[in-house]
Amino acid sequence: MAPIPLRDGDLRWVFPHLAEVEPVLDVLNTATALVERLAAHLGHPRDDPDDPGGGLVFDHLPGAPYAGLTGTVRTEELVFELRLSVPCDARGRAVRPPPWLVDGEISIRCDAISDCGRHELETLESECGTPTEAAGGVLAVAGWLLSRGTTVPPTGWRERDVLSRHR
What we know:
Shape: globular
Largest sheet: 6 strands, antiparallel
Order of helices and strands: EHEEEEEH
Strand content: 15-25%
Number of strands: 6
Helix content: 25-40%
Number of helices: 2
Radius of gyration: 16 Å
C-alpha cells in the first residue's frame, strides 16, 4: 500500500459523511505544514522521493471501508508519528466512526545488544466525536510533535529512554 498525500486523497475515506470538506481540510493542511516543519528541522528535504519529509498521508487500502491519516518524521534513531484512525473490533476490523482516534508517539531505536525494535518515549492520545474535533486533534498532536522535536535536541532523547542498554 503506497501512502497517498493528503492533497491527492479524499477526506471521505476518513470521514464518510463529511458535509463540508474545506474547513476540515484547512485544519489538516495546517497540521501537514507543522509536520513538514519538523521534518525540515530534522534535516529531511521536502522533495526527496524516498523520504517525502513529513506531511499527512492517507493509509487507504482499496476496497477498505475506512482510511486513516498518518504523519511520520524519521531520523536514524527517532520516529515522530501522528495517527488518525477509527477503532477496531475484537477481530481487528475497522468499525464505523465516530469516534476517531488521534494519537502521537515519539520513539527511539533500541540500543541494546539484543535489539528489540523501538522504545516508546512519549505519547499523546485523544478520542474525537466529530470530523472537526478529529482534525483539531491532529493539529494538536502535530503541534506537540513539532514542539517536542524542536525543543529537545536529537541527542537528548536517548537519556529519556528508560530501557536504554537493557538486557
